Amino acid sequence: MRTDDFADTEAPTSATAAPAVDAPDVDAVRAVLDGRWAQARAAVRGLADEPLFRPVYGLDREQYRDHVWRQAQQLAAHGHIRVGFPEAHGGQGDVGSWVTMFETLAFTDLSLLVKAGVQWGLFGGAIQHLGTERHHRRYLDDVIALRLPGCFAMTETGHGSDVQALRTTATFDPATDEFVVHTPDAEARKDYIGNAARDGRLAVVFAQLVTGGENRGVHALLVPIRDADGAALPGVTIGDCGEKAGLQGVDNGRLTFDHVRIPRDNLLDRYAQVAADGTYTSSIENPNRRFFTMLGTLVQGRVSIAGAAGSATKTALTIAVRYAERRRQFNVPGTDDEVTLLDYRAHQRRLLPALATTYALHFAQATLVERLHAVLGGEDTRAQRELESRAAGLKAVATWHATATIQECREACGGAGYMAENRLPQLKADTDVFTTFEGDNTVLMQLVAKELLTDYREQFGNLDFSGTVRFVSEQVVETVVERTAARSLIQRLVDAVPGRDEDADLLDRGYQLKLLEFREKHMLDGAARRLRAASGSRGSASGSEGRAAFEAFNNVQDHLLAAARAHVDRVILEAFVAAIDDCADADVAALLDQVCHVHALSTIEANRAWFLEHDRLTPARSKAITATVNELCTSLRPHARLLVDAFGIPEPFLDAAILR
Amino acid sequence: MRTDDFADTEAPTSATAAPAVDAPDVDAVRAVLDGRWAQARAAVRGLADEPLFRPVYGLDREQYRDHVWRQAQQLAAHGHIRVGFPEAHGGQGDVGSWVTMFETLAFTDLSLLVKAGVQWGLFGGAIQHLGTERHHRRYLDDVIALRLPGCFAMTETGHGSDVQALRTTATFDPATDEFVVHTPDAEARKDYIGNAARDGRLAVVFAQLVTGGENRGVHALLVPIRDADGAALPGVTIGDCGEKAGLQGVDNGRLTFDHVRIPRDNLLDRYAQVAADGTYTSSIENPNRRFFTMLGTLVQGRVSIAGAAGSATKTALTIAVRYAERRRQFNVPGTDDEVTLLDYRAHQRRLLPALATTYALHFAQATLVERLHAVLGGEDTRAQRELESRAAGLKAVATWHATATIQECREACGGAGYMAENRLPQLKADTDVFTTFEGDNTVLMQLVAKELLTDYREQFGNLDFSGTVRFVSEQVVETVVERTAARSLIQRLVDAVPGRDEDADLLDRGYQLKLLEFREKHMLDGAARRLRAASGSRGSASGSEGRAAFEAFNNVQDHLLAAARAHVDRVILEAFVAAIDDCADADVAALLDQVCHVHALSTIEANRAWFLEHDRLTPARSKAITATVNELCTSLRPHARLLVDAFGIPEPFLDAAILR
Predict the structure, then answer these.
(1) Could you tell me the CATH superfamily of domain B33-144?
(2) How many C-beta atoms surround the C-beta of residue A386 within 10 A?
(3) What is the ipTM of this complex?
(4) Which CATH number is A35-144 given?
(5) Chain A interface includes B336 (CB < 8 A)
(6) What is the largest CA-CA distance in chain B?
(7) Region of poorest pLDDT, from A490-504, B52-66, B531-545, B555-569
(8) Any idea which fold A150-295 has?
(9) Which of residues 430 through 459 in chain A touch B, CB cutoff 8 A?
(10) Residue A418 and residue B425: Cβ atoms within 8 Å?
């Protein structure tokens, strides 16, 4: 029996109709978006006054590398990047400012962004966080001033995601008090390393540390790779990755070490030390835990990339929305008036939910940066692990969103979108690797799932699958649906929802939150039970049992990844809701409320199959969601221009021919 | 009540378990794929012996244009492209061979492909199909031999999709027996024109034809743009589109005409003629119909692009699958064995359904080419319109599939996928505009919807929306679910399905077909009713009524586009089913049957929300589909390598560093 044949996606009942909203002032919206670290944003926006930082086209690879090098030097001269470094080195130790600055820098050339990320975020960050006082003293000032360009040499040709399996070795030789850094085979070659092909002089090299004949696991060491004249040092072979999809201004390269000797001092020894006689010591006893503590310093990079992905998405949406407001195609019947692209429902559907989600991600990012700022470098291990999980999840979702949205913007601008002068091609090509670097998104989402499923205080991170299976078989899932920001607000909204779904308004924020919360909890619950059932009474895995453990994990892999996504979706929506609640300007809040409806309902719409499968949406209600999103797009359309203008991207950075 | 908490996506009951399949011989599969025009494929594959046609990197734009020009000259010298031209000009008038050759050429450099498409497909095709005997005599031999490089100047800066709104004018001056071709304003500039920036000497220009003070609508005329030395002719201003996202070897440019005079003879006058006194005649009385008849010659280009998109997708999948079979990451627990990427479920999910759909599209393309070969140039208007609709739909779906799949392959290869030497970046960048050129995909899908909703024999194509509304309000939808290939076979399969869905096996092909058929019919039905209800008793639209008519259309636009997609999905599946039925080799057929299950069920899975909303899937059955696709991926995994090898892409064309 179908009673809904005729309805399909027609307008819903007036109960769920979206109210019209007065347009707030664009600067008021921008102020809300700019938030706590508005000053860092303003500083980077100021670069728009300098022609050096505006988009360029038509440079060949070496010219482009030169150009980015000059930009980076100018950036160093301005001192913007100093803010994240310790006060002893002229900085303010202000992580929030640093990450926000980096996010804003993504409005400029993305090759510059990545070059800066490698030099100051990864290379400088590793010295800062994995090194000790003497490393800081010796290197940081030069790193900050770009007098010492460097590399972060972790990834190898054979291993990227599985960092524990890296094959480069650093063997201690007590006879000379040196480490011997060596590339044993082609798979162990360091690959895709930014700053390596042309500029880098010193590299943070991740290698298996061997002392006293024993492998101590992966550690980071400082290895000089070029002399002052730029020539490769003896034993170091440097290759060039050559042409890439994008980011042509970054000199990615390959490093091979042939028994390269470095002083013992060059071990970045904050978490582990090697004595002159080769004795190995560490304050962290568990090798796994030690490894993940070191890796934890990567969290800042992941947060930064999530923010940068957001900025690139904003640039693309600004271009596409402004073009869609201007571009006309096909007449209104019986008239000579041509319809603007943005008046077409299909075009609204392409751009407006993506715009709304970009807003949601902006606030989720702001919340994450607050947390990073509060937690990083502190002693709260639990908070640090949560931060890492949040960063992993948001990095993955934000970069996937960037890839999909920039692609959609390209297509929505038609042939013009394919021309370099309209910026979308470069935005697409440059950001395309964001889903891969700083952690492959699929691997990151797996990490999120694992964190959700384990009481990681007890069973410190272990990436192998039998581990996951064992964890889950041993304990109840308890930490799920832990509240994000504004716990009490979210709880109040959820609690106020009528008991029966059918009685809830689709535009009831509590109802939307409740749906996402239900999905996350149910998915994790199901994944946990399946893993437990699969693991049965099996003990520690080895050999054929190892294979069985893998199969058990593998059969649930898609389920785990979906659960992680459900978690991140909830976290994002809660951040958006909390930000609106914090918003003092009523007009801005009202508009953001509309935007949040588009985000929340289009997220639920995209996952409506799941809700239908789990009897959480009726067919009629599911269709009503689609109709409501359509209606919301219509009412948001007049505000589209304001919403992109509020991103505050300086015009010189936009500079697309189709907007002139 | 939920009875399925525990099940989620676990394995289905054994009733739907996929049987294991013996691996057939790869050459046997290739022979089936190669099909009727295997010879054309073999000829192009032979180009792999010549270094000139292998992938190159690192050329700057002008070097690349030179390189592509040399490739095109060599192609002309070989005479491959002659096959599509009339026998009088050394060809065989064999459209099927031409299009198949073009499809295979997409295994080589895609800039060469597009350059060839412009020169011989669009430019040569327009002279052949829109011109008459004297044009053929004067130009075709030179066009074929590439002695006369030319352009197809349709799109303008202001109008692309809405060709009837082009603004360039060609005004007949009886005093001199000439047309005056003119660009009245910036919007009327010809834009993105291939071959224009560097090589083109003659252009087919689409312009509003004015004779006797009356506008006769858009017609095509031959306008010389460069002299033999390559200098722009008087009155012609030529610009360069410069850097693009990809296809850097194609010299796209811009043309502006300042009262350029051309002889009356230069009107391509197959469908309309202008006499010396300015008298306008045409065998097609209805101006709209005349316009769409001329535009109908574009159909070959759309079919060609659909095929080329398929080839590019195959190249990307071949690289990604072979890499995923070789690349290992993370150990099997308790062992030193690292797991290959393709053994992970998430990785199988990324690649194998896309691979299956690539097979489906291959057979849909083969069916379309058969139809093109049979219909093109014939007198059957109805068949021609159907062909155009099929071509539009398949072009859109195949190019969207290419965009999504190549992107997925890039990401699935991680950092390596971002390196130019591994070919994926260029494949992505070059194909990205396929969704735009030869008809924007969204506009094409709208065309498909309109064709499905109208009895176009009576009410010949009218792109305006009031037209659409009126059509639908006047008549019953009758031509839906018209059978594609192998009508009786499909009907037999559908008829054999048990009356109750719950009794049907998920691997019952008839059941799968029935679901897609139901979706198409129901969506079209609903769209028609909504349009009729909206149009009410309104007469011909004008002014404010025009706006209302637009709103009525616009409210249904997403529904119409979804209906068109449902239609194309059905057509594709039916083509695949028919191809398997035609397959004489039992082992090949058994494997293709498995591939078809993955395609069909993953298509239904992607649309399961709709089936749930329309009570055509129960929640439990919907979940079982997901579980079955997972299981099918597992059983297809051992055949993945064979399936990509069967595409028959010569190794020199693959040439990715990660496969060496």
Answers:
(1) Acyl-CoA dehydrogenase/oxidase, N-terminal domain (1.10.540.10)
(2) 17
(3) 0.93
(4) 1.10.540.10
(5) no
(6) 91
(7) B531-545
(8) Butyryl-CoA Dehydrogenase, subunit A; domain 2 (2.40.110)
(9) 432-433, 435-437, 440-442
(10) no
